[in-house]
Amino acid sequence: TGEGNDKVSGKTLDNSSINLGGGNNSLELGQVSNSAIAAGDGHNTIKTGALANTSMTLGNGHNSITAARLYNDTTIVTGDGNNALQCNSLGNTESVFGPASSATVVFGNGDNNVKIYEMLHQSALGMGNGNNNVDIYELEQKSSLIMGDGNNTVKIYETEDSSSVMIGNGNNRINIYELEQQSSLSVGGGNNTIKIYETENSSSVTVGNGNNSMELYAMLHASAVNAGNGNNSMRVYEMQQDASLALGNGHNALTVGRMGDGASAALGDGTNDVLIGALTQAASISSGQGNNLLLLFISTGYPSVRFGVGKNPVVSETRPAAAFPAGSA
User: Fold this and answer.
1) Which pTM was predicted?
2) Residue 158's closest CA among 132, 185, 128?
3) Burial status of residue 243 (CB atoms within 10 A of its CB: 0-12, 13-18, 19 or more)
4) What is the largest CA-CA distance in the chain?
5) Mean pLDDT of all residues in 39-44
């Protein structure tokens, strides 16, 4: 079709192509396979069933896309604008219906709003700079979410199987329930607010410089958290099984309910305030130079506390004589 406000509908599309041109276009289809869909600049509204081995290319504008699922190397690419996507799944696992496959969605700059139930088999979702809002239930099987700079809001229930989330600079709000099986979260500089229920199985969180606020319920199985320089505030309810966290230089505030079984915390130079409920089983705390305060309630099992040069008071409610090696605190 040419320029204008076009409205197109049909049941299925196979081995075909549709070009809606520019304008405020509307397209409604059932199953689409082995086909190409294109539209120019404008406010496009597209509703489809499953998209298999299909490409969709949309210009700049406020595009709204609703699809049952994307798989078999389907791609969607849009220009800049405030785009919206709602989809049950990107990619699929191997089944009686066919082999495992992936899908890719790329949005330009803008305030994008995305809701996806699951991303599977190395599927990818990318978007440019803007205030993006993303809600994903499952991010699995080496799938990835990449977001540019902006004040992004991200909610993910499960991130596993070496999947990754990468977010640019800005004041980001991130809520992840589970980060596991060598998955990763990487966030740029800014005043980030991050809540994670559980990190485990060598998963990692990396946050850039800024005044970051982080809350984690459990860090297990060699999971790691690293935050850059700034006035970081971090609360962890439990650290076990060689979990580690590192905070850069600044006025850091760290609260840990229980550290044990080889868990470690390292803080950079600055005025650090540390509150530990229980420090046990070869756990360790260290910091750089500065005026540090450690408030420790229970310590057993030979933990280690090492501070750099500065005024470093250690206040302990229960501290057995053998709890710290000589010269450690």
Assistant:
1) 0.92
2) 185
3) buried
4) 83
5) 92
